[in-house]
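TL;DR need structure tokens for one chain.
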Amino acid sequence: MTVNELAPGRSAAYRRALSRRDFRLLWLGSSVSLVGDGMTLVALTWLVLSQPDGVQRVGLLTVCYTLPVFVGGLLAGPVLDRFDKRHVLAADSVVRGVAMAAIPIMSAVGEVPEALPFVVAVVYGLFKMVPLAGFPAAIPDLVPERDRDAANALESLSFSLSGMAGPALGGLLIAWLGSEAVLAFDAVSYVVFAVAALAVRRPLTPRTRTDEPGPAHLPGDGTERPPGGGVLTLLGDRVLVMTTLAFMAFNIAMGMLMVTAPWLAGTRLDGGPRTLGLLLAALSAGELAGAVMAGARSPRTRPVRAIGVVQLVAAAGFLAILSVPHTLGVAAGFLVIGMFSAPMTIWAQSLRMARIPAPLRGRGFAVLRTLMQATPPIGAAAVTPLLAAGTLTPAVLVMAVVAAAPALALLAARP
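>> reply
TL;DR here they are.
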């Protein structure tokens, strides 16, 4: 079969997903908001850097951005399962939009208090998990099962594109209009998301029973759905537990990579910041390519096994870092990591949608995504002493082993 013969089939799933008005509205609103968030990170960082002892305060800003995510993640799930997700997403957008607007408003009427950027970062972190859990929890109600890989790929594409476009656009606008104007744009982007959520016609209120069509045994993995009940019942689903632990381990390796990339650019590779930009661009380009391919075609083997295969290949990509001082070899490794980690995310998310009962989706996605968001800092802290000692090879081997071990467990398991 030729590439041209495959292309129509690959794009059909995306066309079907985007042809559904409610999903299209929510996805577009989320995408606009994500670009605004990418700009805001740069704008708040620049505001803090302009303060006395700005370099030291950037660390505090990072804590304010990340620490409240864990508290907010535990609170967001029950709210999403109790109320209509359209209204929860809209309320979240209003709250964070007001927080972002506070800085340009204070700047226009007087002076921005030094503590305000940190307060805004805390509000952002506290509510961050609402859309991160709410959007995927809504997808099964908006898109039929056969097109969920495409819908999840579109969400992944939004994250990748906003991760590239948001900071770049924010940096340009800060130089032209100032940080306050960038934060005003983010406030407007939240308004766009709120309007998009409220314009969704289909109610996104959780059902009191699991009334989705389908067999008790999920196709392709030979295991049963978890029984109804509280969110703790999900701990009895071996597939959910295994894949979540695999992602937590892989994210530890990714946390190590995010520290290793600037260290490489500064100490082992030529080009400095340009090389760092190249490495991060290669990672993002790989994620985009992997998301497009994974969303267009479901895995031909069992989902758990397919996730293990691509995770193992992504883990092998870490070994390319040992090709230093050859920049292109290292960049190729970053490309492989991105290309094969994206299908992991998309296929696992579709698997969770099939296995988590509808009344538990808000809590399920909130808890699982919060757990996975918690592990990158562990990797960052673990790799720092190794790099400070200049021992790159042990650091790379640790990254590869941490990423590969759960993949081998998934391949060896008989779920």
